Amino acid sequence: MTAVPLILSFLLSFAIWIIIMITDRRTAASGFFLLLSSFTLGLLLASLAIAYPDWFSEHIFFHILLDIELIFLALLLIAYPLVMIPIFLIGGTILMKKEGIRPRNILSIGLAVLLVLLDTIYPMLFDVTDRSPATYIYWYLTIISLYFVIQLASFWISDLLNLIHFKKNTGIRYVIVLGAGLSGRKPTPLLRSRIDKGIEVYRNNPGAKLVFSGGQGKDEVISEAEAMADYAKGEGVSAEDMILENRSANTIENIRFSSELIRSDAKDKSGQSNPKCAVVTSSYHLMRALMITKREKLRCTGYGAHTKLYFSLNAFLREYAGYFRDTRYMRLIHLLCLTVIYVIFVISQTGSPSH
């Protein structure tokens, strides 16, 4: 009977994940419910192995599934201190060496330092095994950091889920390529990778149009949209298949101004008010871009362009910070609820007699 709640929890979380993936996966909930269903499945398999060892050993499929869950959990536990911290330290160091010491370039190193302070230095300075204030502070910081780790993992998994496409031709009519800076009159390598990916999606969907989106920055001689169009012409794309959006200064404006041009063009050509679109950007940036397309009520899927790993780590943290800012009120409510629950727990513990 103890397995029944776990079975129901797994089925419910897995069903919600399937519904999200079928209806609209442009949400961090897709990653969260995949994580939750994996966690509840692991608990269910472990409980069955303990309660019915003979039956469990006879069913090799469930045995293998539990082994995979345990390996995944072990990798997570090992990756947290031994992999994630060095990767963020090394990636951040390479980024600062290549692009200079700027506030936005130290996020990955800053996160690694905070993790080291919490997991290594703090337990060395304070005893975290008794019922002292230092112990309660330590576990509160651990709970909050765990909340952010789960949120970050959910956001990252959702990004990966939106990168998966099983069909090349999906009936896309407009391919929005987001700008990413220029070098003189030419796209930077980062922007070229986005344009190349956009052209690939465009060619896989006959009849589609490319929408190059990017205004002219203060240090740029032409708009990003114009530079992207010039590059695409050199790759054999017809000017008739290109629409230039050259007013935007950020991702929100990229999507908003592009959607206005798309709806106007589609209404003139086919009478459709909301044709199927794709947004193309760097892989680390895709989730936030898709969330904006959802807010703008665009029928949109996403494609990610390859980006170097050392840059992606820090850039992805910036994207998560942007996502946290966009959803800050909901996150603050979550943190407040966690804090209230923890304070109630601490009060109950400090008020109870020691054993």
Briefly, what is this?
The protein has helices spanning 3-23, 29-51, 53-58, 60-99, 107-125, 133-163, 189-204, 224-234, 251-269, 286-295, 309-326, 328-351; strands spanning 174-178, 182-183, 186-187, 209-213, 242-245, 277-282, 300-305. It has 355 residues and is of the alpha/beta class. It has a five-stranded parallel β-sheet. Strands 2-3 form a two-stranded antiparallel ribbon.
**CATH superfamily membership of the largest domain, which one?**
HUPs
Largest sheet: 5 strands, parallel
Percent helix, as a range, is 55-70%
H/E series, N to C?
Answer: HHHHHHEEEHEHEHEHEHH
Mean pLDDT: 84
Q: Please name the CATH architecture of the largest domain.
A: 3-Layer(aba) Sandwich
Number of domains: 3
Query: Could you please say which CATH topology of the largest domain applies here?
Result: Rossmann fold
Explain the overall architecture.
- The protein is of the alpha/beta class.
- It is built from twelve helices and seven strands.
- Strands 5-4-1-6-7 form a five-stranded parallel sheet.
- Strand 2 and strand 3 form a beta hairpin.
Keywords:
single chain, Rossmann fold, five-stranded parallel β-sheet, two-stranded antiparallel sheet, 355 residues, alpha/beta
